[in-house]
Design goal:
Helix 2 crosses helix 3. The strands form two sheets. The protein has a seven-stranded mixed sheet, sandwiched between helices. The protein has a two-stranded antiparallel ribbon with strand order 4-5. It is built from six helices and nine strands. It is α/β, with parallel strands linked by helices. The N and C termini lie far apart (40 Å). Helix 4 links the parallel strand 7 and strand 8.
Length: 210
């Protein structure tokens, strides 16, 4: 259970990498952020569909949730408490700072709650990341996005029109936010539920580039 008295940190020992420590130095890095109730192994399966030049590092969220872990309490679906989101984002940024010197470019990729985290990290440091990919995710309401709008970072939004988990209002809010503040590629996949499809991954790979 999240409380503001707990110091939230990313456990570096649990991070799952697609390259060894020696092999990943000098490669571009994509930081993968899983959804609520999942874990650091969940998004590793996406790696073979992404450009081979990129190293993927999959993080575990700090808070236990059901059979897995959570970045922050769910709260109102699509509209979580921003204080909790920002606390978790700060923990991820601390971890990114610890590895950033090894990577010339860093991108963000998240699914569902992890997608909201990817966008929140981009809002915190819009100039620091090559892109943010949010799959079946959403942007957290509120906050000053002046810095984001000034930088207009690259964002990929992907979601299915059969997704019954993320409220339609949150999806629409995210599309409007991204169009106003970012250089966005916004894709809707017919018949796709709260999941990731092969077609979506192909679009993400093309978006990321080499």
């Amino acid at each position: 259970m999240w409380t503001d008295s707990v110091v939230h940190m990313v456990d570096a020992a649990l991070v799952q990498w697609t390259r060894s420590a020696a092999e990943r130095v000098g490669t571009p890095l994509v930081v993968a952020l899983h959804g609520v109730g999942s874990h650091e192994h969940d998004l590793l399966g996406l790696a073979p569909s992404l450009p081979a030049a990129w190293t993927l590092a999959a993080l575990r969220a700090p808070d236990p949730w059901g059979p897995g872990f959570s970045w922050y309490p769910l709260g109102v679906p699509g509209s979580p408490d921003r204080v909790a989101v920002d606390a978790s984002a700060a923990a991820v940024l601390d971890w990114i700072d610890s590895v950033a010197a090894d990577h010339p470019r860093i991108g963000l990729l998240g699914f569902s709650q992890g997608g909201s985290m990817a966008l929140q990290l981009l809002r915190a440091r819009p100039e620091a990341f090559a892109f943010a990919v949010s799959l079946s995710g959403f942007v957290v309401p509120g906050g000053d996005d002046g810095r984001v709008g000034a930088v207009r970072p690259r964002v990929f939004l992907g979601h299915g029109d059969a997704d019954t988990v993320i409220p339609a209002e949150a999806t629409a809010r995210t599309s409007a936010w991204a169009a106003e503040h970012t250089d966005v590629t916004d894709r809707t996949y017919p018949g796709l539920p709260h999941a990731v499809s092969a077609a979506e991954l192909a679009d993400v790979a093309a978006f990321m580039g080499d």
